[in-house]
Amino acid sequence: MRNNGLILKLIFLEYRWLLVLIMSAIGLFVPGFSASAQDNEEIAGYTIVAEDPAGPHTVQLQVSPASPIVGTSRFAVRVRDTLTGVDIDNAFVRVYATPSEKGKKQYSPALNSPFDPTYYLAQLDLEHAGIWAIDVEVDSELGTGTTVMSIQVQPRQRSGTGNDWGSGLFILVTLAFVLGISWVTYSSKKALKQRAEQKMK
Predict the structure, then answer these.
(1) Most C-beta atoms within 10 A of its C-beta, which of 70, 127, 136, 171?
(2) Which residues are paired to 75 by β-bridges?
(3) CATH code of the domain made up of 41-178
(4) Are the C-beta atoms of residues 122 and 137 closer than 8 Å to each other?
(5) Can you name the residues that pair with 154 across neighbouring β-strands?
(6) Which of 195, 155, 193 is nearest to 2 (CA)?
(7) What is the DSSP string of the chain?
(8) What pLDDT does residue 62 have?
(9) 71-81 and 143-153 as β-strands: parallel, antiparallel, unpaired?
């Protein structure tokens, strides 16, 4: 077992550049978060839509890109106790998007950001231009609350710019993870096989 651990450690050291590549890709894809949230602080790449009461909570909604276009939009929700102003990081948060004209209602659970659990992150596909109502539902030990805000979704430019970079980086991160895991697995099996062959000699 000790030798197996040593082999895995050597593999890790040998291919640490691959881990650096993966982490770099993640750093490009994931927006920056502060160590601790402050009032009216925008996440890098996001803009604050509004801050409204939702039952016993105060809910702040942020969206990225700052000027949403047809396609994937990302949402960050911050939940606070209205009475104390203290952030709540153990609530159940759900985000809905309903178009005013055409299209289907979208839904996504909002999960704590691994970089700052103060924010709950969700992603929705806003497939038509126009006004979209964004419902945020919150359940916590304080109770239940719902608030509705709205955003204006712009049509996508013919040049194809906009949120394509987000999709591209997502593919890059996924590919990097798959290649990294496959390479480490292959290297580990190869090293263990060579070790077994040396024992046979």
Answers:
(1) 136
(2) 63, 122
(3) 2.60.40.3340
(4) no
(5) 69
(6) 195
(7) -HHHHHHHHHHHHHTHHHHHHHHHHHHHHSPP--SS--TTPPPTT-EEEEEEEETTEEEEEEEESSS-BSEEEEEEEEEEETTT--B--S-EEEEEEEESSSS--EEEEEEE-SS-TTEEEEEEEE-SSEEEEEEEEEEETTEEEEEEEEEEEBPPPTT--SSHHHHHHHHHHHHHHHHHHHHHHHHHHHHHHHHHHHHH-
(8) 97
(9) unpaired
Residue 41 confidence class, pLDDT cut points 50, 70, 90: confident
**Contact assessment for residue 69 and residue 162, using Cβ atoms and an 8 Å cutoff:** yes
Give the C-alpha separation, 42 to 66, whole Å: 10
Exposed e or buried b per residue across 63-86, where buried means at least 16 C-beta atoms within 10 angstroms of its C-beta: bbbeebbbbbbbbbbbbbeeeeee
> And the tokens for 194?
């060579």
Residue indicated by tokens 């000790």: 2
- Rounded distance between C-alpha atoms, residue 183 and residue 45, angstroms: 33
Q: Of 137, 142, 130, nearest to 75 (Cα)?
A: 137
pLDDT tens, position by position, 70-88: 999 999 999 999 999 999 9
